[in-house]
């Protein structure tokens, strides 16, 4: 049975590949697994049918047979566990890769998302200008720690893995912020991920959704 994922009918990132279904698309492309996409509007995401799969009314979701999953990290991990190529065979290396997946979404991503949401929801508030440097400092600390650990390595821990899918897609959210440039190894790391053919196929598929939405007006 072909898995089905959900994605934005009209993505707020305007085709930049930042929506979290990008992580899932990339994982599918890396392992050569076919998948279907069901596009949902913001209104549909809050309806009972979607909430039955994703209780927080977000995307992506994953459905295959009787299995329904939500949370992009959990979905990518499920794909990586079912298909070879995204997790090391060595048990210790496998556990480290999974640990890095958690680090991407639990340690690195939260301050990045908080900064992004502040720019959308709080930009006109009197406290925004004072708050932004504090948010930036939190991100800089995480980027410094990540850069130190990455060093001259191509990927987080040995060969490319699901951990790199998660981390690259998290870091891409800082594009245009000016925060990555202090650590040249991180833009180079992102560029290596974006250069992978599987990434490019996933990005093209997500961009096509935005292009169709624009054409439909």
Walk me through what this model shows.
- The chain has 217 residues and is of the alpha+beta class.
- 58% of the residues lie in helices and 8% in strands.
- It is built from nine helices and four strands, in the order E-H-E-H-H-E-E-H-H-H-H-H-H.
- The chain has a four-stranded mixed beta sheet with strand order 2-1-3-4.
- The model has no long low-confidence stretch (mean pLDDT 95).
Question: Any key phrases for this structure?
Answer:
Glutathione S-transferase Yfyf (Class Pi), Chain A, domain 2; globular; 58% helix; alpha+beta; Glutaredoxin; 2 domains; 217 residues
Amount of helix:
55-70%
Q: Distance between the terminal alpha carbons, to the nearest Å?
A: 34 Å
Low-confidence stretches: none
Order of helices and strands: EHEHHEEHHHHHH
Strand content: 5-15%
Structure classification: alpha+beta
Average pLDDT rating:
95
Rg over alpha carbons: 18 Å
Q: Which assembly state applies to the chains in this document? A: single chain
How many domain regions? Answer: 2
Record the strand order, biggest sheet.
2-1-3-4
- CATH fold-level label of the largest domain: Glutathione S-transferase Yfyf (Class Pi), Chain A, domain 2
**CATH class categorisation of the largest domain:** Mainly Alpha
Under the CATH scheme, the architecture of the largest domain is Up-down Bundle
């Amino acid at each position: 049975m072909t898995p089905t994922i959900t994605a934005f009918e009209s993505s707020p990132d305007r085709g930049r590949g930042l929506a979290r279904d990008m992580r899932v698309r990339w994982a599918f492309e890396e392992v050569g697994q076919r998948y279907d996409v069901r596009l949902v509007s913001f209104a549909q995401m809050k309806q009972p049918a979607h909430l039955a799969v994703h209780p927080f009314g977000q995307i992506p979701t994953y459905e295959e047979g009787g299995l329904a999953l939500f949370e992009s990290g959990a979905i990518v991990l499920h794909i990586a566990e079912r298909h070879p190529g995204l997790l090391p065979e060595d048990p210790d290396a496998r556990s480290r890769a999974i640990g890095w997946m958690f680090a991407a979404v639990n340690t690195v991503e939260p301050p990045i998302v908080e900064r992004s949401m502040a720019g959308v929801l709080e930009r006109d508030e009197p406290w925004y200008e004072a708050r932004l440097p504090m948010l930036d400092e939190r991100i800089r600390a995480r980027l410094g720690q990540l850069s130190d650990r990455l060093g001259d390595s191509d990927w987080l821990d040995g060969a490319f893995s699901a951990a790199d899918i998660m981390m690259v897609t998290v870091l891409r959210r800082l594009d245009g912020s000016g925060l990555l440039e202090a650590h040249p190894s991180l833009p180079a790391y992102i560029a290596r991920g974006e250069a992978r053919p599987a990434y490019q196929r996933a990005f093209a598929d997500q961009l096509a959704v935005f292009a169709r939405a624009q054409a439909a007006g």
